[in-house]
Amino acid sequence: MGKGLASSRAKDRIAALLLVALGAGVAWAGHGYGVGTLSRMGAGYFPMLLGALTLGVGLLLGLGSLARGPGPVPREPLSQPLPKPRHGIDLRGAGMLLLSLAAFIVLGRHGGMVPATFACVLLAALADRGNSLRVALLLALATSLLGYLVFGVGLQLQFNPFQWG
Q1: Residues with Cβ < 8 Å from 148, sequence gap 6 or more?
Q2: Structural domain for 98, as ranges
Q3: pTM attached to this predicted model
Q4: Is residue 93 domain-shared with residue 61, that is, in the same domain?
Q5: CB atoms within 10 A of CB 89
Q6: Where on the phi/psi map is residue 156: left (φ > 0), alpha (ψ -120 to 50), or beta?
Q7: Is residue 97 in some structural domain?
């Protein structure tokens, strides 16, 4: 039991280091493109922002791993075990993720940002066998609404929220 816990903590620490390194690298590269301001974003604005957020998540993961101490990590068992995919590859999940990307591309061009985001998030959420249709619909609705408010209303980006044809 102790070996599994040590292995779990080691994996968390390695993941934290990788996230910090990736985030720092992306933020550094994004800064080189010119950040600009919030009202006049440069080419490096989003890469730097995403890099900084990734770095922050890595730091939080690392601090959480260090703060847990030597005791066992409490884990809640799943209410029902998930079926194991054949041959180690979850074809349903991979297919749904590819379908979600295709839906975003097609609907982004012919339906606008809101339908594209809704379809993409819905299909991606359904790729996880643990999500119910209700959870996937709520997640898709919330993400679409938040995306519209941030990018359509707040930042006034030129990606039409609804575009038919």
Answers
A1: 113, 114, 117, 161
A2: 89-154
A3: 0.50
A4: no
A5: 9
A6: left
A7: yes
